[in-house]
Design goal:
Elements (H helix, E strand, L loop, with lengths): L1 H7 L2 H8 L38 H17 L4 H22 L4 H18 L4 H20 L7 H15 L3 H24 L9 H14 L1
Amino acid sequence: MAFGAAAGSFLPRIAYRLTVPFGAPPRTSCADCDRTFPAGAAGWVHSGPSCCGGGHAPAVVLALIAGALAALLGPVPELPVHLLAALPGLLLAMIDLGCLRLPDRLVGALALTGGIPLALLAPDRILPALAAGAVVGGIYLVIAMLPRRGLGLGDVKLGAALAFLLGFAGWPAVAVGFGTAHLLNGAIAAWLLVTRRARPIPFGPALLAGFLAGVTAV
């Protein structure tokens, strides 16, 4: 949990700067006080709130995720891999909640952060993992091409990346992960419909929560 709390404290500034519409450059200043962020790494590497208040929730959430992973997985070689992958994962969830966008570079960072170590730990599982990524990515791409566009292309890419990572744990983990994601998103959509607050729902957080369920349940 200490790792999660420490690492999560660095996410608010990065998430704030990247929570912008598609095609827009990262934020260069705080919208509340108009303070310009420093150039270079100093403008990105910052512990605590981005600028004007708030910002402690990511540290708490990541600490809880780290604690859950440690408790449910135990001292297995995959534990450090999933702890590191939780960083870009939570960052993606924060950005998607803020602007309905899943940056390709972060999705790629998540896939590489988890995929390379898992491939080294279990080289015999590479083909099943690639198959899982291809199957889920293909299904999601078909859904995204339907007239009502139930999914965005960012969801397609993230779904394929998470299926690839879950594939190292086996098809039951893939089924649990994506089943959980759709149940969560379905429940949220139903609640918004009942309360007459229907609006676009970011699917990234549900996918990432499903991934956590798939990793720890199988």
